[in-house]
Amino acid sequence: MSEHVEEIEALLHEGRRFFPSPDFVAQANATKSIYEIADADPEAFWAEQARGLTWEHPFSTALNWTPPNATWFEDGLLNASVNCLDRHVAAGLGDRVAYFWVGEPEGDQRRITYADLLAMVSQAANALTELGVKAGDRVAIYLPMIPEAVAAMLACARIGAPHSVIFGGFSADALANRILDADCRVVITADGGFRRGAPSALKDNVDAALASCPDVHAVLVVRRTEQAVTWVEGRDHWWHNVVERQAMTHTPEAFPAEHPLYVMYTSGTTAKPKGILHTTAGYLTHVSTTHRMVFDLKADRDVVWTAADIGWVTGHSYIVYGPLCNGATSVLYEGVPDAGGKDRWWRIVEEFGVTILYTAPTTIRTLMKWGDGFPDSHDLSSLRLLGSVGEPINPEAWMWYRSVIGGNNCPIVDTWWQTETGGIMVTPLPGVTATKPGAAMRAFPGISVDVVDHEGNSVPDGEGGFLVVNRPWPGMTRGIWGDPERFIETYWSQVPGRYFAGDGAKRDEDGDLWVLGRIDDVMNVSGHRLSTAEVEHALVAHHAVAEAAVVGAADATTGQAIVAFVTVKANVVVAETLVEELRAHVGQLIGPIAKPKTILITPELPKTRSGKIMRRLLRDVAEHRALGDTTTLLDPAVVEMIDELMRSSSSDD
Ligand code: WTA
Q1: What is the reported pLDDT for 521?
Q2: How far does residue 645's CA lie from ligand 1's centre (Å)?
Q3: Residue 446: which domain range?
Q4: Is 506 within a domain?
Q5: Ligand 1 atom 23 nearest Cα
Q6: Domain boundary at 488, 513, 531, which?
Q7: Residue ranges in the chain modelled with pLDDT below 70
Q8: Residue 378: inside a domain, yes or no?
Q9: Burial 285-322 (b: 16+ CB within 10 A, else e)
Q10: pTM for this one?
């Protein structure tokens, strides 16, 4: 991969941009003037996009804004699932493929048309109604990447029951906390899913979680792996018994535009994850518009593959709601990128003629590490657009993506957004905006962002600052489930009147935006958002641990890696196995994604005179840098000792 480095440095040095090819300009779904039109009257721009949805009752106003609370299209009535399915089938598109589903085991495939999906969703909606689920009730979904996951989400949406999808990699404890926080009464899960070749124990985790969730009265279980599961009579129901005997039609009800669509838990700066709430019409408007313009979608021809998990917001917005609202055809792949060989992804692209690929830099770096031979041995010429999301993309990965995967023909859209924003906020528009390796470029039409200092003043081009959003947008979160104060404090208090994203950014001399990463205690590990406090909390819950400090250290593949500094209680003798035990313990409390890469057991942690742990210095230690200013420390010798310890433990590896 290093052969690209000089080339990239030269390009960046020249400040070179990649301009859209004439072909692309000709076919692009957006034009230059869209920025001016949207800027002149953002509300009118979004209202026009919203009119592309199917409404039972049209809205009369676009935005009602009482900072920090916004409502969009408030007096309109619609049904999210009708917008994703019924209207396409009614328009004669029932035979169009909604999903090419690819299971992890080779040859395991399903082709699901819009008509098939509508029938599945109708049956699932009837089944949920039979199980007593009513509009407003919350339903937890803990499923692998199978078509039933999409059907379950849309069935909830159809009957107005907000879903809370929980990523299958979360542990029983993490699952229980999320079920309790949103007070879910029904859980939809599977006997397992295939990941890394082995069936996962989803049902076991649900059983363990439900020991502390007495209000869950029904569990719907999809049979996927055929492995044996324990069964609670009266509570547990097989999907194939309850859903598949239902009528294939279901009369949907229209709900108000602001009816809750879903809650998605994400990590913030405290140990407790936040339930980010999204409502119906604004969210659908935002994700369908961005999906159409950012990916230059041609719904009748494209095959879009958003290679993300449905358990995260990228899956919600760009595997489920955006593509389905637009009547697009997607690939849904269950497994890891190297299941059945390191060319699995490229075989999928070739087999289904994928035209638009959207994934995270961490995956691009992994694929790049495996070498050019794997993509080179497949015909990837169907690809015409590539997207990146989840973390800053380093120019080297960007160039590899462009040349080796995109054959220097595909524009790259580096899209910045968050669980809270619902959809894409900062991105180039293919065919319209020039691109630069590593830059997210500019705000989407109708969105206004700025880079500001602590007082909220714009910083000059070339200087770093905080990324803020200046005015409300349709997909913005309507709040944190059950915690309105935390919503105001986290997003609306740092820079008054503006949405504070928690990311650092800068504008270059051309005024183009570069997102630099989190400026708070949120880590980004392989595109997964995790809070340092959450991992610390899990570590100190172990009987041997006295104190823990966790930092995210730069990592060439995963973006950041979790490094933990731990002190043990006075009477504890440190066994050789302790580090492994602590990693397993974190895995059990949160999930495997949260296991620290490095745990350093140290006699003390560096603290200020007022007793605060100095994470800044621990980050220096973790990243093997010279230590920063230590003058405010109670005892600078402590951090020097930790630094020494870290160096000697890394050289032992
Ligand atoms: C980071 C994922 C740089 C950022 C959609 C943000 C990015 C967090 C980019 C949200 C990008 C996402 N460039 N950083 N293109 N996209 N991020 O909620 O730090 O899982 O705040 O949403 O990912 O992560 P989340």
Answers
A1: 87
A2: 33
A3: 17-488
A4: no
A5: 390
A6: 488
A7: 1-15, 651-653
A8: yes
A9: bbbbbbbbbbbbbebeebbbbbbbbbbbbbbbbbbbbb
A10: 0.95
